[in-house]
């Protein structure tokens, strides 16, 4: 059985943007402010560092807040995370599902209709949630392409929902823009929380806009 | 039960040094020349690329030639590799053993007495083989420190053997220098084979020197 997962406000961590605060400190504050799910992402960390970071984040999370690990299936398994999130360059979803078994969540980044179609063609239960984006171009992921815009995101989210997948939007979402994003089950943020002077207040503002 | 593993001449792949040839082509030639074990290493590849590379290398290997994957435990499991090799920055050996179970090989890089002592203090059966090095400073891993020299390697190899671990030496080993390396169960090479105009001939020369 899959762990509980509320995608309403999904935080993706960024170690550099969180500094000089630690990632666990930012996560703790963000959850207090209303973050409902957390993905540990650090593309520059060694596997060992990522494992230690994931354990440290897990230690500050309530059981009701789902913890995902970006890319590193081995780290997710070892750290007892609730799920894994993979991009198009990471291990393919069917292979990840084979490794993680039926009791963990799997998220997949999709940036266009073709990538979503591949996700929808997988056996039911392979992927649980698709990340759709970028909504707007974003400085934290400059290689992610031009923005889909809220209309493009809503169209992909409707396709995902029709195929039984939940969806979260990602890319350039701020408290000001959050209300513009519709059709998805939740929004993902990175810099809007990790770079905020007060991550708890930033999370509250984002929740207030949904 | 662990797979068969002959460490006599252990090739660690390097995608850039192999170019314009493919890594599987270099591996195939090197095995024909006498390589007895292969580790797929590519620190710049995405997880998906590393998975595909590992499958491609596996497809050209005889069952008697053990296949290791560097660092990526998830890739090793998915690709059905015989083992995993981890460095000091990768997932800790006890955790890797928990993930791979008893039927795969685990190698660990050790560069000094302290790192070897940690490996020897692990429960028996955690680590199978330690990589000892660098023997000499090497351009393919400039961060690996100054060379231990053949004497330093032999001393560490004796400690490893006394503790029940097999050992391979790595770092700057060429056909000319291979006979200077003693006390270990095998030698690892990267550039001596991957950068050679004729990888099969290079492997034969290295075997001839052991």
From TrEMBL, chains A, B:
This is Thiamine-phosphate synthase. Its EC number is 2.5.1.3. Residues 9-193 form the Thiamine phosphate synthase/TenI domain. Binds 1 Mg(2+) ion per subunit. Condenses 4-methyl-5-(beta-hydroxyethyl)thiazole monophosphate (THZ-P) and 2-methyl-4-amino-5-hydroxymethyl pyrimidine pyrophosphate (HMP-PP) to form thiamine monophosphate (TMP). PANTHER family: THIAMINE-PHOSPHATE PYROPHOSPHORYLASE, THIAMINE-PHOSPHATE SYNTHASE. The keyword Cytoplasm does not apply. It comes from Geodermatophilus maliterrae. It comes from the Bacteria. The gene is thiE. Pfam families: TMP-TENI (PF02581). 2-[(2R,5Z)-2-carboxy-4-methylthiazol-5(2H)-ylidene]ethyl phosphate binds at residues 138-140, 172, 190-191. It catalyses: 4-methyl-5-(2-phosphooxyethyl)-thiazole + 4-amino-2-methyl-5-(diphosphooxymethyl)pyrimidine + H(+) = thiamine phosphate + diphosphate; 2-[(2R,5Z)-2-carboxy-4-methylthiazol-5(2H)-ylidene]ethyl phosphate + 4-amino-2-methyl-5-(diphosphooxymethyl)pyrimidine + 2 H(+) = thiamine phosphate + CO2 + diphosphate; 2-(2-carboxy-4-methylthiazol-5-yl)ethyl phosphate + 4-amino-2-methyl-5-(diphosphooxymethyl)pyrimidine + 2 H(+) = thiamine phosphate + CO2 + diphosphate.
